[in-house]
Amino acid sequence: MRKKFVYSAILANALIGLTSIWWLPVLWSLFIVVPLIGLGMMDMIQTKRAIRRNFPLLGRLRYLFESIRPEIQQYFVESDTDGRPFNRLHRSVIYQRSKRERDTTAFGTQLNVYENNYEWLSHSITALDYFKVNEHPRVTVGGPACLQPYSSSVFNISAMSYGSLSKNAVMALNAGAKIGGFYHNTGEGGLTDYHLEGGGDVVWQIGTAYCGCRHPDGNFDPEAFSKKAQHPQVKMIEIKLSQGAKPGHGGMLPATKVTEEVARIRMVEAGKDVDSPPYHRAFSTPIGLLEFVKLLRDLSGGKPVGFKLCIGHRSEFVAICKAMVQTNIYPDFIGVDGGEGGTGTAPLEFSNSVGMPLREALAFVYDCLTGFDLKRHIKIIATGKVATGFDLVKNFALGADICNSARGMMMALGCIQALECNANSCPAGVATQDPELVKGLVVSDKKTRVANFHAETVKSAGELMGAAGIRHPDHIHRVHIHRRVSPNQVETYLDSYPYIPTGSLLQGPFPPSFAFLMKISCAESFEPNFDEVDFAEYAWAKKPMTG
User: Angle at which helices 167-180 and 443-467 pack, to 10 degrees?
Assistant: First the structure.
């Protein structure tokens, strides 16, 4: 609170100094100081804007600049990792939808339709009113061995841990999930009371550090897991193998965020950097992974259990599929995280240069599961820069059943992309453990914005599907999405990522794009077997990864 008065006083004194040449001291106080103090007090007690609440008076400058952004945004260019726009227009749409404000745009298309990677949906002359023929679409997650299948929304909150996010952010996300009927993934930081307080459905993520279910030596604790997994709000369990922002690297939490409470929950030492191991101790082979899936399903009372990964060595995923066929143990879902996924803390090289992008990864995972005739048992969850209805539709076309969003949900909370996530100084109170900043995020207001953003995004996806004459996400195919690949060439997703026949990987001859992977992979080991492999024989490996 003291900081807020300091900020107000600094700005008030600056304005007094500037006007002292012309105004008498009494008039300064009457017409400048008193109104400024009043504005500062109003900023401190209002609940709608975290920036003004945390930075009275000074925070108003941000909204001043925001108000003129439409006129100056042409001078700011931002792109995501493969050249597709992730710009201020997307952020504006998220903010507007979270507040249920008008989210239409003026003056035509905002993108260059002749740039490479421009994508569009094929619409239909027989377009339909999607929500008149189909209610809010939901997906049932649960394979043959699942005793408690879960009916999931097609759009949910992706993994973000308490510790990385503030307690108020976690509570607002979960309460928003309760309002909107979707789930909230805990992230690898453990299941906390803050994830349960709002009453929303929870997916408990188990990372390599086994936070909340570990022995003091860092190994998995089945008893501690079973006790928490039985909680009725915990609907599914997700094993995190890797994440898109830093695949092959364990989770990272800087020392400034490791408070006494965070340390107690994670069972680590307060005030020191926390780096999760880059690998799991509970298993080391594809078969071992599936046995761990079965163990968690049994310990949770038959709830859906799956795993999340960013695709790296494709042979490793083929090996997992071979292990499924060999053991008849299936995960209930597989989360596919794209290399473009976000995080609060990651080494630059890992964030920018490691991990397969979501589009290619989704197509590969879907084709691999289809080739082994496993897709009928397993749902695919897509994560990685998912923020709009069109993102959902594109992912459905590539094989996803469900989509999760992290940064979109953070922006709905009020994140302004200050890029202070790893410094514990997030001005919006979203990604910080500083209690003075956390107070700026008011749960009662932000939970509604989270629910609004979810509802409006699903509505947008439904309207897009209706425009294409599609009645359900299951009916979207790769042929529906077009992409410009050069100034004079357009392909559909089907051209770029052709399907492979169901069951075509169960016996030879294998599709050319999988022949090499089938030869070097086995269910007993993640390590590819290059013995007696003639690489020259597989010169076709230079061709696209699927098809």
Answer: 50
Q: Return d(Cα 54, Cα 79) in angstroms, integer.
A: 30
Give the amino acid at 321.
C
CATH architecture of 131-483: Alpha-Beta Barrel (3.20)
d(CA 228, CA 9): 48
Q: How many CB atoms are located within 10 Å of the residue 219 CB?
A: 10
How far apart CA 188 and CA 383 sit, in angstroms, is: 15
Cα separation of 94 and 411, whole Å? 7
Are 310 and 244 a contacting pair, CB within 8 Å? yes
- CA distances 542 to 6, 81, 361, 537, Å, are 62, 22, 17, 12
CB-based contacts of 17, cutoff 8 Å, min separation 6: none
List CB contacts of 334: < 8 A, sequence separation 6 or more. Answer: 306, 307, 308, 309, 365, 369, 378, 379, 380, 381
Distance (Å, whole) CA 390 – CA 254? 35
Tell whether omega for the bond before 509 is within 30 degrees of 0, i.e. cis. yes
- What is the Cβ-side half-sphere exposure of residue 264, based on CA atoms within 13 angstroms? 5
pTM equals 0.87
- Please give the biggest Cα pair distance in the chain: 92
Q: How far apart are CA 39 and CA 32, in angstroms?
A: 11
Contact predicate 335/247, CB 8 Å: no
- Provide the token pair at 379: 């749902």
Q: How far apart (Å, rounded) are the C-alpha atoms in residues 547 and 398? A: 13
Q: What is the DSSP letter of 37?
A: H
Q: Which helix (H) or strand (E) holds 439?
A: none
User: What is the residue-wise DSSP string for 178-246?
Assistant: HHHT-EEE--TT---HHHHTT--EEEEEE-TT-TTSB-TTS-B-HHHHHHHHTSTTEEEEEEES--TTS
Going residue by residue through the chain, which has 547 residues, state the pLDDT in tens, using 9 for 90 and above. Answer: 556 665 666 666 666 666 555 555 655 566 666 777 777 777 777 777 777 777 777 767 766 666 555 444 433 333 343 434 345 667 778 878 887 877 777 666 777 788 888 899 999 999 998 877 677 789 999 999 999 999 999 999 999 999 889 999 999 999 999 999 999 999 999 999 999 999 999 999 999 999 999 998 889 999 999 999 999 999 999 999 998 877 878 777 888 888 899 888 888 888 888 888 889 999 999 999 999 999 999 999 999 999 999 999 999 999 999 999 999 999 999 999 998 877 667 777 877 788 899 999 999 999 999 999 999 999 999 998 898 999 999 999 999 999 999 989 999 998 888 888 888 888 889 989 988 999 989 999 999 999 999 999 999 999 999 999 998 899 999 999 999 999 889 999 999 999 999 999 999 899 998 999 999 999 999 999 888 777 776 654 445 454 3
Sequence-distant (6+) residues with CB within 8 A of 111 are 85, 118
Please list the residue range(s) of the chain that carry CATH number 3.20.20.70: 131-483
